[in-house]
Fold Shikimate kinase.
Amino acid sequence: MTGPRIVLVGPMGVGKTTVGELLAERLGTTFRDTDADIVAAEGREIAEIFVDDGEPHFRELERQAVRAALAEHPGVLALGGGAVLDAGTRELLAEQTVVYLSMDVEEAVKRTGLNAARPLLAVNPRKQWRELMEARRHLYTDTARVVVATDGRTPEEVADAVLDALEWKEA
Ligand code: S3P
């Protein structure tokens, strides 16, 4: 099967980009991020897309970005935190090596609570996080082949845990 070696999913702020870059380095491959692809293609920030065109439109753009990346990118791929909400996107991920990077609500609030650049968390972050996690947890676990908890771990430790979970050794 072609396509990325690893696809990372999980909530915003869990470290998909940082861990994804480390994994790519260890596997001697490249890293790609569908959020960055969307920003580059649209020429505007994700927050602007949400405000201007709404979340459903963003999810469509995201599905297209995921489809393109799965077809073109052989390395490590990170998806936006809400990508798994879209049934079409979940279908695209069915045969992929998907890793769910998880964290608990308190860790999430600590890491992202004050980050206003993330439009879904602008107001009452703890409540938003609880609701987000409850709505999404099963979608992440259903989509992923393995789950790696990130709480209290450095990005290096998380990358090790991902490789262990997939039983890959460093080159
Ligand atoms: C979102 C997560 C963001 C980005 C957008 C929506 C979400 O990605 O795609 O703001 O719904 O959780 P990151 O997980 O990379 O922050």
About this structure: Helices lie at 16-27, 34-42, 46-53, 55-72, 87-92, 105-112, 125-143, 155-166. The chain has a mean pLDDT of 92. The first strand starts at residue 6 and ends at 9. Residues 125-143 form the longest helix (19 residues).
